[in-house]
């Protein structure tokens, strides 16, 4: 495959002629951007892959923007062209199935905007509420560091913070805070978006609300987020972080839901602030537990096949420490976990940035940049017991997928705004299950097949799961995924990106 630049026509436009063995494709790009559009092998290679290392899609070119104006120019030029090219904003490319790629189109390396300064501005006041105006290309870790310096913090997070604001807001952004504060898309007051027509539009629930709702959870389909106004609150300094073990799934679930319900009735300070859960199936991966306890935990895993780990955390500072200690003590007395509770007391930033510690270890071992055949699901509460039996016990344990990282925790539907594009199950309580496998380059299909088996099981058992961060193989599957929201999604697409230019890697319209 050869990409050739036609400089003769540069007065009017920049033409990329893209030659394949069997076909020639040419796309015309805006001349104003010629210094920022790259077609060198390094730029193309970086834009052709992602964290999944499963899909490879080659773009014709890569834009390294230095301003929002560059994004407008790129999109407007395509929109006005007789043969529009597709455009994918790429945050960190931490998608796993090519969602931020654009075959034969243009990938926009959003992180290139960072060179123009941090674009994180904190505003507001105590009376009307604090906020951070943040560029879509910014990493959540940088938002955290900038806000805690002022004693403030966003309220909703992802487990891992080296993701871009635009990338997570295009999905939802979930973690252990979601049960209490909703997903990250819930905690945004305003957006600047460059639509699929190349227009820069400010939107919120009050102004251009249709675009606002479309973009949040909108899988990059309606515009590129160039600024998000994120809700802030005062930051605590410390975190009490607990792990409790269960041999029985029902008891584990009940206790998760008990903890989740505390906030429905309690006043300030709200707690627990964070609630997740994990499967423990590998007796050789017990590093987070004290050495003297490991043999006992390992033998429980051998006996039961799975231990369920309830993970919860509560923020505190000097003023609330006593109150939090007392309340947690009372609360934990009402739970039914095994007697030992594993506790850590860490700084707020250390807690939120916890996955980065694992990242550094995995990078050192060469295990970070490997295939990630991930599956993330939302499961209605009515199906979660059957899911435990059919998937955790009958697929994972029986087929020996015991080294997989598997998360499972509940959240409330009423913490999500149904006007937004994100899709969740119909029931008031639903669970997320994340199968976060890492594999070799030669055996990711084994995990992919296991994921297919999980979906087939749900289908046969009538468990109406929704994929999160999910890819679908056909338009019909996407229509099924969106269900009653499909018509709105389609109408919004026709309104804001009528030429189907944006985020082709999601494979919804392209
Ligand atoms: P990309 O992968 O680059 O892009 C994702 C999609 O958004 C693409 O369609 C892209 O075109 C579009 N997009 C990117 N930027 C913009 C923008 N500015 N405007 C409009 N569209 C845009 N997710 C969670 O919810 N919770 C977690 O706890 C969590 N943990 C993770 C841990 C790890 C280690 C990894 C790798 C991912 C995790 N994720 C989690 C998934 C993450 O939210 C997605 O990968 C998401 O896509 C963010 O990654 P990104 O910023 O690299 O976006």
From TrEMBL:
Residues annotated as domain FAD-binding PCMH-type: 55-235
Domain of life: Eukaryota
Biological-process GO terms, alphabetical: cytokinin metabolic process
E.C. number(s) listed in UniProt: 1.5.99.12
Enzyme kind, highest EC tier: oxidoreductase
Molecular function (Gene Ontology), one example: FAD binding
Catalytic reaction annotation: N(6)-dimethylallyladenine + A + H2O = 3-methyl-2-butenal + adenine + AH2
Cofactors: FAD
Pfam family, one: FAD_binding_4
Record InterPro entries: Cytok_DH_C_sf (IPR016170), Cytokinin_DH_FAD/cytokin-bd (IPR015345), FAD-bd_PCMH (IPR016166), FAD-bd_PCMH-like_sf (IPR036318), FAD-bd_PCMH_sub1 (IPR016167), FAD-bd_PCMH_sub2 (IPR016169), FAD-linked_Oxase-like_C (IPR016164), FAD-linked_Oxidoreductases_BP (IPR050432)
Keyword vocabulary terms for this entry: FAD, Flavoprotein, Oxidoreductase
Record family assignment: Belongs to the oxygen-dependent FAD-linked oxidoreductase family.
Protein name: cytokinin dehydrogenase
Protein species of origin: Dipteronia sinensis
């Amino acid at each position: 495959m050869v990409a050739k630049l036609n400089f003769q026509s540069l007065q009017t436009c920049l033409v990329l002629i893209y030659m394949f063995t069997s076909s020639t494709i040419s796309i015309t790009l805006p001349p104003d951007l010629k210094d920022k559009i790259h077609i060198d092998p390094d730029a193309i290679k970086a834009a052709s892959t992602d964290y999944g290392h499963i899909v490879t899609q080659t773009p014709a070119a890569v834009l390294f923007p230095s301003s929002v104006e560059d994004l407008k120019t790129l999109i407007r030029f395509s929109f006005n062209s007789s043969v529009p090219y597709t455009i994918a904003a790429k945050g960190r490319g931490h998608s796993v199935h090519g969602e931020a790629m654009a075959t034969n189109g243009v990938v926009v390396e959003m992180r290139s905007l960072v060179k123009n300064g941090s674009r994180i501005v904190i505003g507001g006041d105590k009376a009307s509420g604090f906020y951070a105006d943040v560029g879509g290309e910014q990493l959540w870790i940088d938002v955290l560091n900038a806000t805690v310096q002022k004693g403030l913090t966003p309220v909703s997070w992802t487990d891992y913070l080296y993701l871009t604001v635009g990338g997570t807001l295009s999905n939802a952004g979930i973690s252990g805070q979601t049960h209490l504060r909703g997903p990250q898309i819930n905690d945004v007051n305003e957006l600047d978006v460059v639509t699929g027509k190349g227009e820069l539009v400010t939107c919120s629930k009050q102004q251009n609300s249709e675009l606002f709702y479309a973009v949040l959870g909108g899988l990059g389909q309606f515009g590129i987020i160039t600024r998000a106004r994120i809700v802030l609150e005062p930051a605590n300094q410390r975190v009490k972080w607990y792990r409790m073990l269960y041999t029985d799934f029902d008891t584990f679930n009940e206790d998760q839901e008990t903890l989740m319900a505390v906030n429905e009735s309690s006043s300030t300070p709200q707690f627990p602030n964070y609630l997740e859960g994990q499967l423990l199936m590998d007796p050789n991966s017990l590093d987070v537990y004290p050495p003297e306890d490991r043999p006992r935990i390992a033998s429980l895993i051998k006996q039961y096949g799975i231990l369920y780990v309830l993970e919860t955390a509560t923020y505190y500072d000097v003023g609330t420490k006593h109150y939090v200690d007392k309340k947690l003590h009372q609360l934990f007395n009402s739970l039914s976990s095994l007697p030992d509770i594993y506790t850590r007391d860490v700084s707020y930033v250390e807690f939120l940035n916890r996955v980065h510690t694992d990242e550094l270890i995995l990078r050192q071992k060469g295990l970070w940049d490997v295939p990630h055949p991930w599956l993330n699901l939302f499961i209605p509460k009515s199906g979660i017991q059957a899911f435990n039996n059919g998937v955790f016990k009958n697929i994972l344990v029986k087929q020996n997928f015991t080294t997989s990282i598997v998360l499972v925790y509940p959240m409330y539907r009423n913490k999500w705004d149904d006007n937004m594009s994100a899709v969740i199950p119909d029931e008031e309580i639903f669970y997320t299950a994340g199968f976060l496998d890492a594999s070799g380059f030669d055996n990711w299909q084994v995990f992919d097949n296991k994921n297919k088996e999980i979906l087939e099981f749900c289908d046969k058992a009538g468990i109406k799961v929704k994929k999160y961060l999910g890819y679908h193989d056909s338009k019909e599957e996407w229509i099924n995924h969106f269900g009653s929201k499909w018509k709105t999604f389609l109408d919004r697409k026709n309104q804001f990106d009528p030429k189907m230019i944006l985020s082709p890697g999601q494979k919804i319209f392209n």
